[in-house]
Specification:
The chain has about 270 residues and is of the alpha+beta class. It has two domains: about 60 residues; about 200 residues, Endonuclease, Chain A. The chain is built from ten helices and nine strands. The strands form two sheets. It has a seven-stranded mixed sheet, with helices on both faces. Strands 7-8 form a two-stranded antiparallel sheet.
């Protein structure tokens, strides 16, 4: 009968911890009942047993880590993702001590975003969130650009125009509110700063870029019935810097944010 040593070695490798544990148990039982035998032998088998247990735990952890999702995660909408976004915002701000943590947020009319920042501000004021050296840059549609929206077909042009004017006013109001947080003592004393910048184009994506570790994003779509753009209701995707494709998406969104900050539609906004 021919022995396949490769299979034997594979079997020993896959079951080594079980084999060592059995040897340890047998050794402890045998030397425990043999009179006159040195305790050092008994301790050797105890040591082998503890090592088998320890390395088994480590092996289980490694296997569990390997099974964790490597690809992007999908939430049905941004509101479902909201608690996870806030969790990563809070943890990143808590962990940051000396170097500046830079957070970029891109939205449409930033209603949902402003709610989240308002909640963050309350946590800071109530001293539940301890943060220092954080700069949050929020990008939203230029109110003047919204007022100048024109489409070839509109079921009710007056209603469309009035709604856009209301959205423009809302953005201006939320901008003033968010910038006003910078005057709070809790923000001044801890070098926390909020910036709001306008972009002069239609909304294409929303984004939460938290330092160099987390990305949450989704896309805007056009609703022909309401004659409006839909964002937070669309799926939200997540990647951290340990997952596949993080670098690709991080660089792409960084580039798109740079474009939004540089592009200006003078025809629509400078009047």
């Amino acid at each position: 009968m021919e022995i396949n040593f490769n299979n034997v070695l594979k079997g020993l490798y896959s079951k080594w911890n079980v084999i060592v544990a059995l040897i340890s148990i047998l050794g402890m039982l045998i030397f425990n009942f043999i009179p006159g035998v040195s305790d050092s032998y008994f301790k050797i088998f105890v040591f082998l047993g503890l090592n088998a247990i320890l390395w088994t735990i480590i092996e289980i952890k490694i296997k569990l880590d390997d099974k964790s999702p490597k690809k992007m995660q999908r939430y049905s909408d941004m509101r479902r993702a909201r608690p996870y976004i806030l969790k990563d915002l809070y943890s990143s701000m808590e962990e940051n001590k000396s170097e500046e943590l830079y957070i970029e947020i891109v939205g449409g009319r930033i209603r949902t975003i402003s709610d989240m920042i308002r909640e963050l501000k309350t946590e800071i004021i109530d001293r539940k969130l301890h943060a220092r050296n954080v700069r949050i840059k929020i990008l939203t549609i230029n109110p003047k650009f919204i007022k100048g929206w024109e489409f070839s077909k509109s079921e009710n042009s007056m209603k469309f125009k009035k709604r856009n004017e209301g959205n423009a006013s809302l953005i201006q109001h939320l901008t003033e509110e968010l910038i006003g947080y910078n005057d709070l003592p809790e923000f001044k004393n801890n070098n926390l700063k909020i910036e709001v910048a306008y972009y002069d184009t239609f909304p294409f994506f929303y984004l939460y870029k938290i330092g160099n570790k987390y990305l949450y994003w989704g896309f805007f779509s056009w609703n022909p019935v309401d004659e409006d753009f839909v964002g937070p209701e669309n799926p939200c995707y997540f990647l951290n810097n340990k997952k596949e494709l993080f670098k690709d998406y991080f660089e792409m969104f960084t580039n798109r944010v740079q474009f939004l900050l540089c592009y200006r539609n003078h025809e629509k906004t400078d009047n």
